[in-house]
Amino acid sequence: MKVAVALLGMLSCAAAFPWPYPAQFDHSNCTIKADNPMIVAKNSGSVLLNSAISRYTAIIAKERFWPPVDYKLKKPDTTGALGKLLVEVATDSEDLNMETDESYTLDIPAGGDATLKANTVYGAMRGLETFSQLLATIDGQRVVRGTPLHIEDRPALAHRGISLDTARNYYPVSDLKRTLDAMSYNKMNVLHWHVVDAQSWPIESKTYPELQTNGAYSVDMRYSYKDVGDIIKYGRERGIRIIPEFDIPGHTFIVGETFPKIMSCLDKQPNWDKYAAEPPSGQLNIAKPEASEFAIELINEYSKLFTDDVFHLGGDEVNRNCWAEDPDVIEYISSHANATVETLLSDFYTQVHSAVAKQKKIGMSWEETLFHSEYAPPKDTLIQTWIDEQSIPKTVAKGYRSIASPASSYYLDCGHGAWLSNFDGNSWCDPFKSWMHVYNFDPWANVTDPEQQKLIVGAEVALWSEQSDTVTLDNYLWPRAAAMAEVAWSGKTDSTGHVRTTQEVVQRLHDQRFRMVGRGIGAEPLQPLWCARNPGHCLLP
Question: Alpha helices of 441-539 — where are they, by DSSP H?
């Protein structure tokens, strides 16, 4: 009994440990009251910073997070009281891109005012999230444990994202905003919006209004220009960039509902698998100038609607059979010396990547554009690697920047079996990727050259929506996306070079999951509550 009481006493003085884990975290053993901490900006007129302070003030005022491991603790003894949190940023610049500085320092003394310093408003946002996670309510008393404490923090990767498919099934704007909220709680900074695909075209087009009219599932399953602007603004207020993807030339059957004359292999049945990765088949007809003109007009339009400096062109899973059997492609090749499907595809890629550059955007594409075609993308192109974990070292070896999204670890839709209704078997990417599997993946594995390591600039988990919609969104994403978020922010190792293990981090992730649930995110549980309350008792012998 005396031992148990002593352990509980030690826990009452233990520091809270945020998620993701900070780059440097020095703490002591004092507990101070934090009844109603006021957050004050020093010498800043930033609208974004003031908005973030108001948001976190409201979160903290409402939140009464009691860590599950502390469920038996009584109101702790305190040695002092927290005053205000003084927030200071070096510049009011609100530029948000891959070069944005998100670093911050946070100091909480054993009594009195705390200080949060950052070079940008976005670094301050990350520090505000950390500050909110250091607060705990024990037996009705809100405290900060482990003071005095000092944190110096910065991300390991500049691009830490979620790729969300809103075409196969639709998600309302409220879902996207809630996802942005959850991302901010985990210091993620990119929503890669895979907004259209073969199955639907939910987004408004001013250039081709019929695309949405004919392509959205219903009038209630659409995104207007106003919706897009609202989502971009909402993300920016949380330090999150919105990168659009308009996947071309493949995955475009839905375009054929409006412009069938610029398409190839539209909805081939029943042998769709000869022409596409999944039904319905359909690709832009790369032999027709009208198809390239259509793609360029889309780039010109949506490059203005979406304000981020990156524009994703897709380029994955193009099917050569689709074009090899197309009469227009056959005729073009027969009448043009040295022309092939591959030269046509390279010409198409040249045109669309040039269009992106003319809009002063950076192109992003799936790895097939680099590895499965004769085309050489511009060197500033971001290559999203997904087919094989070895695609990451192969990409950086060619001098391109890599966004790591290996299906084997980061595809969160996998594990629910096949969705083709006459096949009772596994899907192509089964099994389910547990949070531990996600956490254990190392984006830097097999890259030893320091200059090539610098080219690994980001990581994204992906939720494809063949078997996901608004009902499943939160529990498919969370807390597994949070597992990736820590690796992308904190790296795979601590300051001593020790590789963090799932056994070591599970208690912090329990805390983060319960905290997210309290903030309205439907994150699924990691284990029975008993395990969260009894650390170390749910291990494989």
Answer: 450-454, 473-477, 480-490, 502-518, 529-533
| Residue 58 CB burial class (10 angstroms; 0-12, 13-18, ≥19) | exposed
Burial of 520 (0-12, 13-18, 19+ CB in 10 A): exposed
Are the C-beta atoms of 516 and 523 separated by less than 8 Å? yes
- 94, 317, 466, 524: which is the annotated catalytic residue? 317
Q: What pLDDT, in 10s, does the model give residues 20-73?
A: 999 999 999 999 999 989 999 998 889 999 999 999 999 999 999 999 999 999
Q: Is the peptide bond before 249 cis (omega within 30 degrees of 0)?
A: yes
Per-residue pLDDT tens over the stretch 349-390: 999 999 999 999 999 999 999 999 999 999 999 999 999 999
Helix, coil or strand: residue 146: strand
- Residue 159 pairs in a beta bridge with 458
pTM of the predicted model as reported, rounded to 2 decimal places: 0.96
Strand partners, 459: 160, 404
Task: Give the tokens for residue 312.
Answer: 């994703």
Active site residue 278: no
User: What's 464's DSSP letter?
Assistant: -
Q: Which residue has the tokens 């038996």?
A: 72
Which token pair is 40? 């004050």
